[in-house]
Automatic annotation (TrEMBL):
UniProt keyword annotations, A-Z: Membrane, Transmembrane, Transmembrane helix
Top-level taxon in the UniProt lineage: Bacteria
Membrane-spanning intervals of the chain: 6-26, 38-56
Species per Swiss-Prot/TrEMBL record: Pseudomonas trivialis
Protein name: Phospholipase_D-nuclease N-terminal
Amino acid sequence: MQITYLWIFLAVIALLLDLWVINSVWRSDNASGSKAGWTALVLLLPFVGAAIWGVSGPRGVAKAPSSAEHSKG
């Protein structure tokens, strides 16, 4: 019974990690084809794909559009 909870916990962690990495991939400045490739890698190999993205993925995310109109506090 305890082993079942362990597998459920690991599956939830893998799902959350994948969602975080996929969000990071699609917010990056890479081309769409590159984003699709990273997404496929992360979905096919959850922990390994996330580790590879963490090591070799881009370090920044796309900047949000900004203007004087949107920057009013």
